[in-house]
């Protein structure tokens, strides 16, 4: 162990907070923010689980993983918010999967993908099945960029409305604007997140919205 001032420098073994990740990390006792090399989330060290001082037997592993993490930290491009995994999924993966979920489901017998129409369902996923759902974000995920609280300006222009909602709930923050990708499909991205917390269903929602407009074109023309 090395000393710096009145503190001793130690290598610690910690576990990532994300339930689906649970990567074991080697971190310095002086670090305050730790980025998980596996899921990409950043955690305050005080929130990390199973914190242990590295033993002599574990020191070779700890030094190797710590040095590798430090070497990755600066020279390489930072992982963007769209690639950060929360409970095993990133925005990027969700957006890629979404078009498949428009027409495919999982066969309960085989566990394999199968066209919805071959399972006696509509050709396109019926998004009205989510009509009674609403997403409740976990407190530890609110600060995750690209998943939690939106930082693009919505907090400012919705400030009066959000303040009234907070006052109506006895000063508790019950409603926050969360991130939705603004790539031209922001409406369906936002609706998907509001329903299930992910952008997994942006494409089925877009197809359903298109079909709705086509079926009700005369009403909208009137």
Automatic annotation (TrEMBL):
Coiled-coil portions: none
GO terms under biological process: endoplasmic reticulum membrane fusion; Golgi reassembly; protein K11-linked deubiquitination; protein K48-linked deubiquitination; protein ubiquitination
Ranges where the Deubiquitinating protein VCPIP1 N-terminal domain occurs: 4-169
InterPro entries to which the protein is assigned, alphabetical: VCPIP1, VCPIP1_N
Any matching Pfam family: VCIP135_N
Top-level taxon of the source organism: Eukaryota
Molecular-function GO terms, alphabetical: cysteine-type deubiquitinase activity
Descriptive protein name: Deubiquitinating protein
Naturally occurring in which organism (per UniProt): Stegodyphus mimosarum (African social velvet spider)
């Amino acid at each position: 162990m090395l000393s710096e001032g009145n503190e001793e420098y130690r290598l610690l073994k910690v576990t990532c907070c994300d339930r689906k990740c649970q990567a074991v990390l080697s971190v310095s006792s002086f670090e305050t923010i730790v980025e998980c090399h596996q899921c990409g989330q950043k955690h305050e060290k005080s929130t990390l689980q199973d914190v242990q001082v590295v033993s002599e037997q574990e020191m070779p592993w700890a030094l190797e993983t710590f040095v590798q993490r430090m070497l990755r930290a600066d020279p390489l491009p930072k992982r963007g918010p769209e690639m950060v995994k929360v409970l095993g999924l990133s925005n990027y993966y969700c957006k890629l999967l979404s078009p498949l979920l428009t027409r495919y489901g999982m066969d309960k017998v085989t566990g394999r993908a199968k066209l919805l129409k071959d399972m006696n369902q509509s050709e396109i996923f019926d998004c009205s099945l989510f009509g009674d759902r609403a997403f409740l974000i976990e407190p530890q995920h609110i600060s995750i960029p690209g998943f939690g609280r939106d930082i693009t300006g919505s907090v400012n222009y919705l400030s009066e409305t959000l303040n009234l909602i907070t006052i109506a709930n006895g000063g508790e923050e019950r409603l926050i604007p969360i991130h939705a990708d603004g790539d031209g499909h922001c409406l369906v991205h936002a609706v998907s997140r509001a329903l299930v917390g992910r952008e997994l269903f942006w494409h089925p929602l877009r197809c359903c919205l298109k079909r709705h407009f086509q079926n009700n074109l005369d009403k909208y023309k009137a």
